Amino acid sequence: MGNWTPSDSEKLYGIKDWGMGHFSVSPSGKLRVHPLADNRSIDLIDVVKEAKTMGLTAPLTIRVQDLLRSRVARLNRAFEKAIEEEKYEGRYRGVFPIKVNQMREVVEEILDAGAEFNYGIEAGSKGELMVALALHENNKSLLICNGYKDDDYIKLALSGVKIGKPVFIVVEQLSEIDRIIRLSKKEWVEPNIGLRVKLNISGEGKWADSVGENAKFGLSPTEILEALSKLKRAGLKKSLKLVHFHIGSQVPNIATIRNAVSEGARYYCELRRMGFGVEYIDCGGGLGIDYDGSRSNYESSTNYSLEEYARTVVYGIKVACDKADQEHPVIITESGRAIVAPHSILVLEVKDSIEKSPELKPPPIRKNSNQVLKDLAHILEKKDSYKSNLERFLDAEQLKEEAHTLFAHGYLKLEDWAHAEDIFWRICRDVAASVADDPQIPEDLEKIDEILSAQYVCNFSVFQSLLDHWALRQVFPIVPLERLDEKPTVNTTIVDISCDSDGKINKFTDVEDERDTLPLHRLKKNQPYYVAVCLVGAYQDILGDQHNLFGRVNEVHVFLEDDEDDGFYVEEAIEGISIDEILPQIQYKSEYVSRLMKKQIDAAVKADRIKPREGVKLMAHYNEVLKSKTYLS
Q1: Fewer CB near the terminus (10 Å): N or C of the chain?
Q2: Which CATH number covers residue 470?
């Protein structure tokens, strides 16, 4: 379409900026994923088509398993390289925090991919620890226990130690020390203990408040000294083996990470100076994802790469230890978002379009038309009489408000109010076209794109699939699956099918800043149009709620396969939740609601409101819908 090329789409949507080498546009204008960041790729529209043959339609989660595996390998190799380059004398033993994505198929894939690196697992609750103990089979990898702990939690962790697992219980609150001492003596097992310290540095980004003096977890310097005394008195001095600190999630600035590592390493050195044989330093999470591709310290970005993160951590710990003449510890990180976010793609189908920009010819202005209509028509038709587009727009905006006031007070008919609004949208569209190529646009005109934007209705729920966007204003890259060799001509926002007005996406990634609209293509009749929401593998699978009773979406797991014509195969297909599966989660069994409905239909038959045969059909349809999926079909 015109001179538009796939490269233009790559620039428009910032694909090469946020894609980390994993996404590109094919010569035919299709979005493709490169699981191993090499020449091999998968056209995502082909995955959607294959899923459809299996009865799975959008909304559809595509998990690219090779990409997940490559992220595990890249993190571990980055630390191996940094350790070698810095001549660091310790090792790296990363763990995956399963709170970021507890899905079985995700955690199992990560542990399998990390086996060669002795990559472990982190749990933050009893439920997560039960999963972690069951899945943890490599006793050269670590199992880190964080979070608030009761007796059952600690006994579970100690049972792992009993059967030979390197389980570390991290003390988050001073009160946990007494519980660990009591239970370890009762169970006759020597625990592996870590202390989480409260850093004094300032955090940065959306989760800045998770560090510092008022942090929810961790021990203050005074509490650390008291914990050390308790361990000494209990004869468990040798059990203290780990120092833990946390920088926060999605840390955008490498300087924050550098400062945190430096302070955390000082605690390690001081504990060793005091005679405690600490061997491990756990730097927690914080490694971020560059969601918008700006490579900045903006909260949805990072001004560093994964490799730069690894070098910063290794170098910071080495400098602190060398200065204090202490051994280099085993380095642990709990990177979750950076591992899982890129592998998951949410595919949405646009079902409808709500537009303000009219296509039909407007009704004529007559002699007896209201003056406000005549004035608006003048602005539309006599644009050369205005010195600037800004003046023209502001006059039109004022007249639109005047027309609405007249209608609200009964001085303007509905037809005239609709006509006034129609002319206003035409003026906006004309002004937008006039300033489209201007290098600088007046501030008051910058909102025209948002005013004119179409709402593309997609078959999904923000609250179920993209809760971080609603709750935290997290932006995700969104790209059409096809037609990327055509210029998108419609500025849009995306709305879901929930009944909540907040069920929308109206902030989008942009290299320079967030944008309020997303350029998409005009819909074609009887031709499906899909968009991909990328980098959604962290937290979204777990955080989603059951708002409007929309449940888990359809899902496919994809692997590269050179022997296949399209370069991939679907290893596993998982159907989304059905209505009769979701109702029991809110205490409605399908048999119960079906029985209540049948009672009312029978009563309608007895009262001759419907015929018996019609009653049977109504009941059959009700039971049929009970077994259907929660989304639009």
Answers
A1: C
A2: 2.40.37.10
- Residue 77 and residue 131 share a domain: yes
Output the six-digit token pair for 546.
């059951």
Which CATH number fits the domain that encloses residue 321?
3.20.20.10
pLDDT digits (tens, 9 = 90+) for 272-293: 999 999 999 999 999 999 999 9
In a domain, 375, yes or no: no
Same domain, 163 and 245: yes
In a domain, 438, yes or no: no
Do 117 and 129 lie in one domain? The reply is yes
- Helix (H) / strand (E) containing 531: strand 530-533
pTM, two decimals, is: 0.92
- Amino acid, res. 452: L
Amino acid (one-letter) located at 90: G
Residues 338, 535: contact at Cβ < 8 Å? no
| Nearest one of 51, 74, 70 to 62, comparing CA atoms | 51
Helix axes 104-113, 126-135, angle to 10 degrees: 50
- Are 251 and 205 members of one domain? yes
CA distance to 62, 433, 560, per residue, from 557 (Å): 6, 43, 10
Q: Are residues 119 and 239 in the same domain?
A: yes
Choose the weakest-confidence range: 138-152, 325-339, 424-438: 424-438
CA 507 to centroid of chain Cα atoms: 13
Last residue of a domain, one of 481, 510, 541: 541
Same structural domain, 74 and 161: yes
Q: Is residue 385 part of a domain?
A: no
Q: Which domain holds residue 610?
A: 580-626
Q: Which residues of 348-369 are buried (b: 16+ CB within 10 A; e: fewer)?
A: bbbbeeebeeeeeeeeebeeeb
C-beta contacts of 151-159 below 8 A and 24+ residues apart: 151/179, 151/183, 152/126, 153/125, 153/126, 153/129, 154/179, 154/180, 154/183, 155/183, 155/187, 156/126, 156/129, 156/130, 157/129, 157/191, 158/183, 158/184, 158/187, 158/189, 158/191, 159/133, 159/187
- The one-letter amino acid code at 17 reads D
Q: How many CA atoms lie within 13 A of 125 on its CB side?
A: 6
Q: Report pLDDT digits (tens) over 377-412.
A: 999 998 888 889 999 999 999 999 999 999 999 999
Which residues lie below 8 Å from residue 529, measured CB to CB, with a gap of 6+? 349, 350, 480, 482, 483, 520, 521, 523
Q: Calculate what percentage of the chain has a pLDDT beyond 70.
A: 97
The count of structural domains within the chain is 3
Q: Tell me, what amino acid is at 88?
A: Y
What's the pLDDT tens digit per position in 519-545?
999 999 999 999 999 999 999 988 887
- Contact call for residues 423 and 373 (beta carbons, < 8 A): yes
CA distance 229 to 223: 10
- Number of residues in the chain: 633
- Decide if 430 is inside a domain: no
Statement to judge: residues 110 and 125 lie in one domain: yes
| Backbone φ, ψ for residue 378 (5° rounding) | -60, -45
Same-domain pairing of 15 and 133: no
Pairing of strands 518-520, 31-33: unpaired
